[in-house]
Design goal:
Elements: H1 12-18, H2 20-34, H3 36-43, E1 47-51, H4 55-70, E2 76-79, H5 82-87, E3 96-101, H6 108-120, E4 123-128, H7 134-138, E5 141-144, H8 157-172, H9 185-192, H10 196-213, E6 217-222, H11 227-241, E7 245-249, H12 250-253, E8 265-271, H13 277-290, E9 295-299, E10 310-314, H14 323-340, H15 353-360
Helix pairs in contact: 2-8, 2-9, 4-8, 4-11, 9-14, 10-14, 11-14
């Protein structure tokens, strides 16, 4: 159990969501002050493999996108789930760099991935909230995210800390003319927390619908760096509400999954201003034809592209940075829906004997 257990709102997850402006600022500062060795290793890498499990793997996906974007493909960056890296990845080479993400520093399969990197003679970096744990002893370099807390098992601030660390590292590798100013990010995150009332109202509506109908489909979709954001939103819903939820890459959703959609489907579309926004409008129009009223998270400048949808308007920032603020309304929605359904979002059912036993059989 977490060191502190609560039985009503505000749960620990809620407090950690609201820590994120400070967490993002701290992560930026750590990279600026202590990231030079990691930046040097990444700058000479031919291939970077980013790995993790669960929330950490979603962060790895964003990190791979950021490294490719900021280096214009000079660095071949690929996200691969820790179990796949340990079990199926064909060959690690001494000139590879493995970047392992583990908030706890003790994730079993991520440790095994670091062991494999060591056996192959590959350079390794661990990005973690707890730099004194086993992962640091297996990696050549350790870079803390600055969020050395784990009060709720539904990780929120740990996720945005890892995202910020990865994006700041990638930004440092960009040509000087293409560096982005990351200093506004903490304030952007603070502004995004202002969507709490909207997320709360949406959760109340869905909880009432479930009370009356017993079933609703919860779907999320995004493209590019926000494919992982959709996946993280899905994971938070599964962890905290125990309801079935699904996430699809934007184009993937247009090739089959819509056949399973209905007017009862809650569809959340992540559509920041960028290359995929026109395709997102196609999806929204298709969903509306089925009778779905999508909820679209989009930039303020793109509001008019989605006239018939429910819109959550976000500050306009470069698309590669949007996974940091765009995950926050998803975290808030999952939190308030969990509370409305009478769940404890901090525990992931580990207070129940059968689920605790299930975890013991694989952890």
């Amino acid at each position: 159990m977490p060191p502190e257990r609560r039985d009503r709102h505000p749960y620990l997850m809620y407090e950690e969501i609201h820590l994120q402006p400070e967490t993002v600022a701290r992560s930026l500062q750590i990279v600026a002050e202590s990231g030079a060795d990691t930046i040097r290793v990444l700058s000479r890498a031919r291939r970077v493999l980013l790995t993790g499990a669960g929330t950490s793997f979603n962060a790895a996906m964003v990190g791979a996108q950021a490294l490719r974007r900021f280096t214009r493909g000079r660095v071949e960056a690929q996200a691969i789930e820790a179990y796949e890296l340990v079990t199926y990845f064909p060959a690690l080479r001494p000139d590879d760099v493995v970047v392992a993400l583990t908030h706890s520093g003790e994730t079993h399969m991520t440790l095994r991935a670091l062991e494999r990197a060591r056996r192959a003679g590959a350079e390794s970096v661990v990005i973690t909230g707890f730099p004194g744990k086993e992962a640091s002893s297996l990696a050549a370099l350790t870079l803390p995210t600055g969020h050395a807390e784990e009060r709720s098992w539904a990780h929120t601030a740990g996720y945005t800390a890892a995202l910020t660390t990865l994006i700041a590292l990638a930004n440092a590798l960009a040509d000087p003319a293409e560096h982005l100013d990351l200093s506004p990010l903490p304030e952007v995150v603070r502004d995004t927390l202002g969507l709490e009332d909207l997320a709360h109202r949406l959760a109340a509506q869905i909880a009432l619908y479930l009370h009356e109908n017993a079933r609703a489909d919860l779907w999320l979709t995004g493209a590019g760096p926000n494919e992982a954001t959709a996946g993280e939103g899905k994971l938070k819903l599964l962890e905290t509400t125990y309801l079935p939820a699904a996430a699809f890459e934007l184009e993937e959703m247009l090739h089959g999954p819509l056949a399973a959609a209905s007017p009862a489907t809650l569809l959340i579309v992540l559509a920041p201003t960028g290359p995929s926004i026109r395709r997102a409008t196609d999806l929204v129009h298709a969903a509306e034809a089925i009778g779905i009223a999508p909820h679209v998270v989009t930039g303020e400048d793109s509001e008019t592209l989605f006239p018939g949808a429910h819109r959550l308007l976000m500050p306009e920032i470069p698309e590669i940075l949007t996974p940091i603020p765009y995950v926050i309304p998803l975290q808030l929605f999952a939190y308030f829906l969990s509370v409305a359904l009478g769940r404890n979002p901090d525990l992931l059912r580990r207070e129940e004997d059968s689920y605790r036993l299930a975890r013991e059989r694989y952890a």
